[in-house]
Structure formats: C-alpha cells, structure tokens
Amino acid sequence: MKRIIILLLTVSNFSFSQNLNEQIIAIEDKLISWRHDIHKHPELSNREFRTSKVIANHLKSLNIKVTENVAKTGVVGILNGNKPGKVVALRADMDALPIHERNDLEYKSINDGVMHACGHDTHMAILMATAEILSKNRDFPGTVKFIFQPAEEGPPAGEEGGARLMIKEGVLENPDVDAIFGLHISSLLPMNKVYYKPRGFFASSSSFTIKIKGEDNMSTKNRPTPEFIELLKRSGSSDKTVTKSEADDDFREYQYSASNVNTFTAVSYTHLTLPTKRIV
User: Fold this and answer.
1) pLDDT single digits (tens) 239-278
2) Is residue 152 annotated as a catalytic residue, yes or no?
3) Which CA distances in Å does 149 have to 18, 36, 81?
4) What pTM value is reported for the model?
C-alpha cells in the first residue's frame, strides 16, 4: 500500500491525516480484487476493450471527468482539486502479453495465450485505488490527470498505438501537463519502497532489421564474396555489453542478437518461399 501513499503525496501537498491513512488501508481488499479481475481477463495491445470499460466505469463512479477511446482503447480521467495549481499526470499501462499462463491460481488468465506477465494489472489497480482516494479528498491544489495507456508493449503490425498515439491525440493537453509519473513495479527492487527519478528509469524493448545486399561470387557458384562475408561477420558481432559509464549504477543492461546468413539459387529460393507462404 505504500505505493498508493507515495502517489498521493506526489500529486499534492495536503496533510497526511490519520483519516486518510485509514482510507488507504481500507481500500486494500478492493485493490487486490481489481488486480485479480484484470489479471484474469488480459487483453493484447489495442484490444483492451473490457479493461478500458472496467476502468472508465470506476472513474465515472467517482465523479471524475472521463474520456474514453483515446488512442483506440485508452482512458483518461481528470480530477480537479479545490484550489488552483499545477497539473500532474499519473500513468498506468493496460495491455497484456502473448504468453500462455502456467500458474495455478484462482485468477489465472482465462484468455488462452494471453497473460499479464509484466505487472500492468497491478499498475492499473494501484492507479484506480489512487483515483478513488483522491476523489474523496479533493482539498488539494491543482489537477490530477489519470492516464491509462493501451499498447505499451507496442501496437500490432500496421497499427498506431501506445504513448505516441496518445500524445498525438493530445493527452498531455487540455489541461497541459506540468509533470507526469509513469508507474511500474519491479521484482528487482526491495518491497515496500518506491523509487523515482527524472526522465527515464527502465529501458524499453525495441527491435530493428538491417538488410545488407551484396553481389554473388560467380567463380564460386552463387556464394557471397569473402569481402561480403567479412562485412556480415563484423555487423553481427558488433553488439557489445553496455559499459558502466553508459548504464545506471543500480541497473545493468545487456544486448543480445542472433543473425543468420543464407544464400540460395533462384530455383532453391522459389522452392523455399512457396511452402513458407502457404504456412503463413
């Protein structure tokens, strides 16, 4: 529950009363219930239809202004304090991963091949609880914008989505956000502690493809030239471990890559691609 306490203290400077502490303790069972329900019904990027409805209905029940269908399935809630002040945004991600859950739990995923394996169910439950507590204690300066972001893991191929699309659609405007906090749990950190820092904290997962085209060596019958092979070797082995000066003191990042090089005659290429297209 300390994560909720820190979030509340972050967005305002209201006094942390005994009554507020009691409210936070009292909401714990509800928070756990939300997390279990969301975990049981995971949805992939840009397909968070049920999830967004659960969130939107909860925020509406708190008399928070709600905008739905932001960046396809995102939800944004705006809560104004009783005094003028800055605008602080709190963000939780919504999408699950294409993973089959093997856990034997009462709230195990019922959607085959889809699982909340990155903590997004917990992020949403924490932010829903924070919204409820703040909605009952509005004597703070400024505005809180609750951002529930879809497609954090990346939108499906050929689609827009995620934070980029939310920003494109104006999620940081009307009212303009002065500061934003992105919530993420971590099994690498001690329990009951909250860490924060300016700008980025964790690394994102990204991928790219490099295509290198070369001439074949006619003297060796459709085999690449030694120069071309050497170029591929160098490009494939160029990955390196991030050095101490490039990584934070608390976290180390490592990069791995796999590459494969094949050459084909026109005939063998045709025989290979035809069955592949049928499979796809």
Assistant:
1) 544 444 444 444 444 344 444 545 555 555 455 445 444 4
2) yes
3) 33, 19, 23
4) 0.73
Among all chains, which residue has been given the structure tokens 């924070």?
Answer: 130
The question of whether 215 is a catalytic residue gets the answer no
Q: What is the pLDDT of residues 130-180, one digit of tens each?
A: 999 999 999 999 999 999 999 999 999 999 999 999 999 999 999 999 999
Tell me the CA distances in angstroms from 7 to 19, 155, 175, 194, one per residue in order.
17, 28, 20, 9
How many residues are recorded in the chain?
A: 280
Q: Which of 79, 90, 80 is nearest to 148 (CA)?
A: 90
Beta carbons of 133 and 1 less than 8 angstroms apart: no
Q: Which of 48, 132, 152, 153 is catalytic?
A: 152
* DSSP 8-state symbol, 93: E
Burial class of residue 213, CB neighbours in 10 A (0-12, 13-18, 19+):
exposed
CB of 147 closer than 8 Å to CB of 71: no
- Active-site pick, 95, 101, 121, 132: 95
CA 64 – CA 57 distance, rounded (Å): 10
Report the DSSP pairing between strands 83-93 and 141-149: parallel
Q: Phi then psi for 255, rounded to 5 degrees?
A: -115, 135
